[in-house]
## 1
Amino acid sequence: MVDYVAERVREGFLDFQAFGGMDDEEVVRLLTSIKGVGRWTAEMFLIFYLGRQDVLSFGDRGLNRAAEWLYASEDSGGQSQLHRKHAQWKPYSTLVSLYLWEAINMGLVQAGPLINDKSLTPHH
């Protein structure tokens, strides 16, 4: 993959300076057009290289696991918790992602649900 990216930069197809003026989906489209670069990789580029504030990688298994852990007491209606909560987290989805990853890193997600008794949670 690195070879393909380097080749695209040499060809002038990729200009890292231009990414700052592009919206997130433009960057994802451009990066995923390169062999070996998928959506998850492009989203990580948005978060960790470009510092974008509102990126949520729906394909990230860790984020999905952590969101299910955090909202285990809430009925998801068959939808993933990431999809269900995404609108509430805007425009700071990246920050939420970082906290969810940290919950995994600290072993909280593996330790089990925060609250097992659904009657203890407020109904909205």
## 2
Amino acid sequence: MFAKYLAVFTSMLLSLAPSLVIAEQGNSSKLVVQHAKIRQFLPAATSTAAYFSLMNHSPQTRILQKATISGLGRVEIHEHVHSDTMMRMQKVQELTISPYQTISFQPGGYHLMAFEPTGKLRKGEKLTLTLYFANGERLESPIKVVSLQEEMGKQENNHSEHKHH
């Protein structure tokens, strides 16, 4: 009986924790993921995008080599680049995070492309994002499923507060 209450209390406590995860290796490495979200797949789409902020709160450079998301068969690190007045997306083999640097994975910049879902992604669902680094570190973080409509609404609200001179 006590185990049942303990399990319920633990799950409630974990659900209240913010989407902030810190990985530590020894005392020197601190990596932080914040605001991790993945968009639901649109009908007939074969891929979707994921965004978050990655902070390196350590004096050592970190090299991100790979990412996985639970429930998805393949995840790639991508970036948007401007070339000959055109914007295009390209796969990134590894990404260097300098000491005390924050990299924002966001539309129009670095982002994750996710493919091959094993099931339907449901709005509000929490998956697990795992980042793999060249030195062997792994960083796990919850990543929340959001709808594209929700994301577009937030962007419109942010622009509506902008005042023109």
## 3
Amino acid sequence: MSTVKVDRFLECEGLACPLPVVRTKKTMDEMNAGEVLEISATDKGSVADLQGWAKRTGHQYVGLREVKGVYRHFIRKADASEIKKEIQYPHAITNEEIQRKLEAGENLNILDVREPAEYAFGRIPGAISMPFGELEGRIGELSKDQEYIVVCRTGNRSDMACQLLSEKGFKKVKNTKPGMSEWLGSIEKEDY
């Protein structure tokens, strides 16, 4: 079995979105083109987050190894000519705006792109669970005629989801900022 030559190692175990991406970006900024960074994370959402970040920025997501709940990501830093400027999705909605719409009785299509466990332990009432890592494969379940409000924990994963939906022809999509980490409205959760 061949091994991947790793130039830097980044420990992100125990961290949740957006920290693995934030720390990966900072570390990649310090590396040379062609070098490989190995990121060790325990957040299942880091799989879709880091793959999405690499695709958006032009870095090469080399691969993933998962052993006993630890995700080892390998990303090769792109040459300066290949690096894409990170773009934030331009259409956003605040937690407070969503809360006002819900209180006014508006029927909202809220798409929660967090991992199933995050969704189970607290979500905006009526939100649909569609983890970011499954979104592209399940996009056929959504209607391009509908408006969607996309939510995650902090607005980062939902930003990537909004960009993906926009690329696939969805015109009425808004990213929730700051997301569930600062949601003060009512929540639904699973009974355990």
## 4
Amino acid sequence: MIARNTTAVVLASLLAATGTALPALASPAESADTAEAQQSLRAPVTDENFYFVMADRFANGSTANDDGGLGPDPSVSGFDPTRKGFYNGGDLKGLLDKLDYIEGLGTTSIWLTPSFKNKAVQPADNSAGYHGYWITDFTQIDPHLGTNEDLKALIDEAHSRGMKVYFDIITNHTADVIGYEEGARMPYVSKDEEPYRTAAGEPFDDRDVAGSDRFPALDPSVSFPYTPVLEPGEEDLKVPAWLNDPNLYHNRGDTTFAGEDAYYGDFFGLDDLFTEHPVVVDGMKDIYQTWIADFGVDGFRIDTMKHVDDAFWQEFGPDVLQFAHEQGKDEFFMFGEVYDTTKDFTSQYTTRNSMQAVLDFPFQDAARSFASRSADAGRLGEFFLGDDWYTDADSNAYSLPTFLGNHDMGRIGGFVAADNPGAGEDELLARDELAHELMYFSRGNPVIYYGDEQGFTGPGGDQDARQTLFASQVADYLDDDLLGTDATHAQDNFNTDHPLYKTIGALAGITGKHPALRNGAHQHRYAAEGAGIYAFSRIDTERQREYVVALNNSEEAQTAEIPTYMPARTFTSIYGEGEDRVKSARNGTVTVTVPPLSAVVYEASGRIPASKAAPAISLSQPAPTEGDNGRMLVEADVDGSSFYQVSFEARTAGGDWTPIGTDDNAPYRVFHDVAALDPGTGLEYRAVVLDNKGHTGGSGVVSAEAPAPVVTLEAPEENARVRDAVELSAVADPEKATNVVSFERSVDGGAWEEIASDSSSPAYTYTDDISGLDLPDDTQLQYRAVLGGAVSNVRTVTVGDPVVVQPGAVSVPGAFNSEMGCPGDWLPDCDEAQMTLGDDGLWRLTVDIIGGTYEYKVAIDKSWDENYGAGGGPGGSNLVLEHDGGPVTFTYDHRTHLITAE
């Protein structure tokens, strides 16, 4: 990846932007044990305001393309403005016509949901491709949305206004075109059960050759657990042509979104690309480089990033970025969707996998908890403390796109309404605005999900969060309560006087006038115990100015004494309903009162007092982290209380010193990625502190070793009762294609015996057949996994018939629920859909339905929190019932989670 964090580059960009000179920085000491002092990285996009829009649901600029040229039948064209799962009519011309509206929010970047040509309707899903995630042609715009020329016109006009256009792209899958000879949408088959085979029938592990020229030739008749087939007439449906080769897909059945199948399984039948195959890697790079070169696209949001193997990103990201730079796109930016709320995991994609940024799902969770649920303010402080996970040589948390809701999970307005039942309109609106204030004033690039500026709510995610801004005909949308307005979805909602539209525009205006509120160093200052004030500073490192931001998530006014770097200085209000001016005490503490459910921002007068000398700095002993054994926690102790930046470097024994990140807020630390190193590899670390006057001080060198891997046995379940066979599963940290995990068994406390080994990453499994051991009931078996010198936890099971803990309720939600007397379809809590538990431990339900083809699932305890689909997979694909009409009996076994219909 092209380095973007050198001091020279950062300073040069600042000078060019401001036309002013910076204070000269003292040269770092020449000692061999002193690291190079650097400024904390600010990528080119730390000042973007994103507007995330689904073209089909925004504005209908031309009715001529509503049906995509496929005719009036919705089952063919996918166009039906009365149904939330079908095309509703929006298009790129509509976006072009409404650029004034978008720009009025302070938008600097428009992010479009996928706009390539989709399979208009997938009958198995009873839905259309309005959302853009069922692509068949990666080279042209979906005809429902317009043409390639319409896109070019939109991009050109946006560029003329100083706005960028980002594409939402997919590398993980295509539309559901490939079927299997064995049946449609089959359950997942693991690599250990059925390994991949070469065209000659020899088994191999794809991770061993991922992305390399050693990847073997494949044959669809022998290489996969299922035999891929194409319907007549669809053999050449996909574009580019290489996408029609069934050897370039995983062909393992549907994912359950967990473990190995999260990488290899089909998403509800969508054809899962073999991203380990070099043809796929090169093909995807070619596709998206063409859109950069020919249309001037400014960046990509990348769908389903965590479901693609690491090796793909390690090549795709740097190569595409370099290509964009070669096209003159110096600010080209890519960020991925990693749907997870743990920073140790989400950050791996920007550190280990060489990508620029990821969508900040952890922020969304923290912001909702603070603003909507009035969670303990200290939790927000802990959240920002974890930003160091993202710090490395070429990226950090300042470039992460932050958001409050989206098209998959739901809207912030809906969350606020759900979290505060019975609350008045004023409170709901205030909480919504508070969430946006937190998003705009804290680090990161704020993303507005279209319609949130009009108070859209909705009861949930997916189709329930995809309302149109133009007048809707969808019954499910027409009964939504919008925040801050008496309007409904029955009319256009482009109201520039809506309070949320005006608030968001004002926030963009304030941060545009005071850019330190967007890219200044984020310093934790204060957190109340319980609901109350959370406060932080943003530091303009060029002008040495401090801003104090205080947010109050309680329903009463709160006062707090907030530490600053500025003793005896005046702070002037630039946002919010607080006092016009406050003055800090001699110790720098400023007393601030914040009204309920609101925010205030103050700017200090003058510069932060200059440091007279660099403080002393030393390194703690580096050690593997608990959250990620492939990373070393390297932390510096800095003896001082002013504004500092600490740069870290590392090297292996005898190697060159390499920058591994610069941290601009205490505690000063990085999480150095050493996953690629062999256990026991010698490491050396050093750091240098840079004060606000340009003085530097070095830490000296400390030594460490790359850690041994950690292996964890995840199955069998502890204290389970087993009969005949025991399913074993283990994972390794860090995960490597070269790992070989052995499984060991102990019988009734006896000696450990190796029973099998597995080298098939990323999951290590084995089925221990105990049927021939002639073990009496109540015999205890213990299992563990071994990797090199690392030994896992132990799981204990007992021989005997399994005890099934039955749920309180089991239902059959599906497309036939309304036929059964339910008020609608897909209702897990409908009384008529509930099953009855029999003496044999099986659940049954017999109902009369009209003949037809229906989809259904199994839901536990009257909610979607636990549900099962095809193959008994948790959260698996819908099952399909073709019935002639009359009585049908559903039978469900909670031991296997399988359901049948007869």
